Amino acid sequence: MTTTAHRRGMRMAATAAAIGLLAAACSSSSSKSSSSSSSSGTGGPSTTAGGTNTASATGITASTITIGSHQPLSGPAAPGYSEIAPASNAYFQYVNAHGGVYGRNIVYKYLDDGYNPATTVTDVHQLVQQDNVFAIFNGLGTPTHLAVEDFLNANKVPDLFVASGCTCWNNPSKDPYTFGWQPDYTIEGEIQGQYIKQNYANEKVGYYLQNDEFGTDGAKGLDEQIPASSVVSRQTYDPTNINVGPQIAALQAKGVQVVVAYSIPAFTALALGAAAKLNYHPTWVVSNVGSDVPTLKGLLGTAGSPLIEGIVTDDYVPNSGDTSNPWIQLFKQIHDQYDAKAPFDGNVIYGLSAAYTFVQTMLNAGRNPTRDDVVKVVEADHYAGGPYLVPFSFSSSNHQGVSGTQMGTIKNGVLVTTGTPYTATDTGNIQPYTQAPSTPPANGIPTASS
Amino acid sequence: MTDTTSEPRAPAPDVAAPTGTTPPPSAAVGAAATAGIAVVALALLALLSQVHGKVAPWGIAGLAVVLGVTAFSGRVTLPASPLLRHLLIAAVGGALVLVFSDHVGTFSDFQIAQVAYFVPAVAGLNVLTGHNGQLSLGHGALMAVGAYTAAVLMTHQPHVAIVVLLVAAVAVTALVGAVVGVAAARLRGPYLAGATLALAVALPELATRYRSILGGEQGLSLRTLSSPGWLSPSFPPERWLAWVGIVSGLVILVLLANLMVSGRGRRWRTVRDDETAASLVGVNVPRTQVNAFVVSAACAGLGGALYGLANSLANPAAFTVALSFGLLTAIVVGGVGSLAGSIWGAIALVYIPHLTNSASDHYKLGTSVKGNLPLAIYGLVLVGAMLVFPEGIQGGLRRLGRAIPGLRPRAVERR
Question: In order of start, what are the domains of chain B with their CATH numbers?
Answer without folding.
Answer: 25-104 (no CATH), 107-403 (1.10.3470)
